[in-house]
Design a protein that fits this description.
The complex is a heterodimer. Chain A is built from seven helices and no strands. Chain A is mainly α. The longest helix of chain A is centred in the middle third of the chain and has 49 residues. The N and C termini of chain B lie far apart (90 Å). Classes of the chains: A mainly alpha, B mainly alpha. At the A-B interface, helix 3, helix 4 and helix 6 of A face helix 4, helix 5, helix 6 and helix 8 of B.
Chain lengths: 273, 186
C-alpha cells in the first residue's frame, strides 16, 4: 500500500510534467511537425530506392534511344520515308523504344506502389494538418517562419520542377531534409511535403500515360505493324520518362533573389498582423 | 381682455415660427468644405495636413489622400516612412475616420511581409480552396503594393524579397493542400 502510494505521489507529478512538456513541444512545433510520421518517411525512402533501380535499368536503353534519334534527325530521315537506310534506323528506334517500354512494364508495378503509398500518406497528412487544422493565417505564419529563418538555417531545397536532378537523388535529398529537420526547425516541412506530394501526382500521371502507351505499342506489335517513323507519342513518353527520372527538362531559373542582409533592428508597427 | 390675450398668442406663435425657420435654415445650409489638397513632402507634415482635412469633413477623400501620401513616400524614400505611415494610420483610426481593422489592412498591405489576402479564421480547406485562384491573384496584386511600400517607399528590399518568396511558397503549399482537400471530398 505504501509502495503504491509512493508510486502515485512520485509518478503523478512526473506524468503531469511529461504531459505539460509534450504539450509545450507540440505547441512550439505546430501541426507541420506531424506531416512526416515514420511511415511517410519510410515510404519516401522506399520510393527513392525503387526510382534508383528503375533509373539504372533504363539508363542504357534511353542513351541508345537518344543516339538513334540523333542519327535519324541528322540523316534527315523525317522527309525520306522511302529511303531504306532511314527505314532501318526507324525500325531499330522502334525496337529500342519497345525495349524501354518492356523494361518499364517490369519495373512499373513496384514504382507505382511506392509512389501511391507516398502520395496517399502525404495527401492524408496535408489534408488534416494544413487543410483542416490550420487557418490561412497559420499557414502563412508557418511559411513566414521558414522564410525568416532561411538565412541562418540549412540551405533551402530547390522548389519543385526546378532541381534538374535524378528522381532518386531528389528522394535522397527529401529524405535527408525531412530526417534532419524533423528534430529541428519544422517550418520548411510544409513546403517539402507539398513538393513531394505534387511530384508524386506527376509521377502517377506519368505512370498512367506510360501504361497506356505500353498497351498501344503492344497492340501495334500484335497487328504486326512495325514502327516506320517516330510518333509524337513516342517522343512525349521518352521525354516524360527522362524528365521524371533524370530531371533533364527542369527549369533552372532562380525563384527569387536572396534577401538582403538587414543591419538595424527593423521597425515593428503596432498594426502588424 | 380676451382680444388682447388672443393678439398676444398670435404674435408669440409668429415669433416662435420665425425663430424655428431661422434655425432650420442655418442647419440645412451646408458649410463649404474644400477637400482639395496640394500635398508636398516631407511625409510627416503631409500626414498632418491630411489629418486636418479628415477631421474637417473630408473623410470620403481618404483613399485619394492615401494614394497621395504613398506617392510622396516613394518620391522621398527612407526606412522611416514605414513608421510615419503606421503612426498616421493609428491616429486616423483613433479619430474614427477609419476602423482599426482598416488601418491594419492598409498598413500590412503596403509595409508588412505577410499578406492580408491570406488571412482568415476558418480552415484552409473551406476558406481558401474554393477560391484559391482568386486568393493567389489577390496576393499577386498585394505584392505590387508591397513593392511600392517596402521597396520603393521604405528602401526595405529584404522584406520585399521575403514577401515574394512567401507568395511562391504559398502557391505550392496551397496547390498541394487544396488537391489533398478535394481528394478527401472536402
Amino acid at each position: 500500500m505504501k509502495t503504491k502510494l509512493t508510486i502515485i505521489t512520485l509518478g503523478l507529478p512526473a506524468a503531469i510534467a511529461a504531459m505539460f512538456a509534450a504539450n509545450v513541444m507540440a505547441a512550439a512545433s505546430g501541426p507541420v511537425m506531424r506531416l512526416f510520421p515514420t511511415t511517410v518517411l519510410e515510404d519516401i525512402k522506399e520510393t527513392g530506392a525503387v526510382a534508383e533501380e528503375m533509373e539504372n535499368s533504363l539508363q542504357d536503353v534511353i542513351a541508345r534511344l537518344d543516339l538513334q534519334q540523333q542519327l535519324y534527325t541528322e540523316s534527315r530521315c523525317a522527309d525520306a520515308d522511302e529511303d531504306p537506310g532511314c527505314g532501318r534506323i526507324a525500325k531499330q528506334l522502334g525496337a529500342t523504344y519497345l525495349e524501354m517500354l518492356s523494361n518499364m512494364t517490369e519495373r512499373l508495378p513496384a514504382m507505382e506502389t511506392a509512389v501511391n503509398n507516398t502520395r496517399t500518406g502525404l495527401e492524408k497528412r496535408l489534408r488534416e494538418e494544413l487543410g483542416q487544422k490550420s487557418t490561412p493565417s497559420d499557414l502563412q505564419n508557418t511559411l513566414l517562419g521558414r522564410v525568416s529563418q532561411a538565412e541562418n538555417d540549412q540551405p533551402a531545397i530547390a522548389l519543385r520542377g526546378r532541381s534538374g536532378i535524378r528522381l532518386s537523388d531528389r528522394f535522397k535529398q527529401y529524405y535527408d531534409l525531412v530526417a534532419t529537420r524533423r528534430s529541428g526547425s519544422s517550418q520548411s516541412l510544409a513546403v517539402i511535403a507539398s513538393d513531394i506530394y505534387l511530384d508524386m501526382e506527376e509521377a502517377s500521371q506519368m505512370i498512367a500515360a506510360t501504361r497506356e502507351e505500353i498497351t498501344r505499342a503492344e497492340l501495334m506489335e500484335q497487328l504486326n505493324q512495325s514502327f516506320g517513323h517516330i510518333t509524337p507519342e513516342m517522343t512525349q513518353v521518352v521525354n516524360g520518362v527522362k524528365s521524371i527520372l533524370f530531371g533533364e527538362s527542369a527549369l533552372m531559373s532562380p525563384i527569387a533573389a536572396a534577401p538582403m542582409p538587414q543591419t538595424d533592428a527593423p521597425f515593428v508597427s503596432p498594426l502588424e498582423i | 381682455m380676451k382680444t388682447i390675450m388672443q393678439s398676444f398668442k398670435t404674435r408669440f406663435s409668429l415669433i416662435v415660427l420665425l425663430v424655428l425657420a431661422i434655425i432650420s435654415a442655418c442647419e440645412t445650409t451646408p458649410a463649404f468644405v474644400d477637400c482639395r489638397v496640394n500635398l508636398k513632402g516631407p511625409l510627416a507634415s503631409a500626414t498632418r495636413v491630411i489629418e486636418d482635412k479628415l477631421v474637417n469633413g473630408c473623410e470620403y477623400s481618404f483613399d485619394s489622400y492615401l494614394a497621395g501620401l504613398i506617392d510622396i513616400a516613394i518620391a522621398n524614400p527612407t526606412p522611416e516612412n514605414k513608421k510615419t505611415f503606421s503612426d498616421f494610420l493609428v491616429r486616423v483610426s483613433d479619430q474614427g475616420t477609419i476602423s482599426k481593422r482598416q488601418a491594419k489592412g492598409i498598413y500590412n498591405r503596403y509595409f508588412n511581409v505577410k499578406f492580408v489576402s491570406l488571412e482568415g479564421d476558418y480552415n484552409t480547406c473551406s476558406q481558401v480552396c474554393p477560391v484559391r485562384s482568386k486568393v493567389l491573384a489577390d496576393m499577386s496584386n498585394e505584392l505590387m503594393d508591397k513593392e511600392m511600400g517596402l521597396m520603393q517607399a521604405s528602401e526595405d528590399a529584404g522584406s520585399y524579397y521575403r514577401a515574394d518568396h512567401l507568395l511562391k511558397e504559398a502557391e505550392i503549399v496551397l496547390e498541394a493542400t487544396c488537391r489533398a482537400c478535394s481528394a478527401g471530398g472536402i
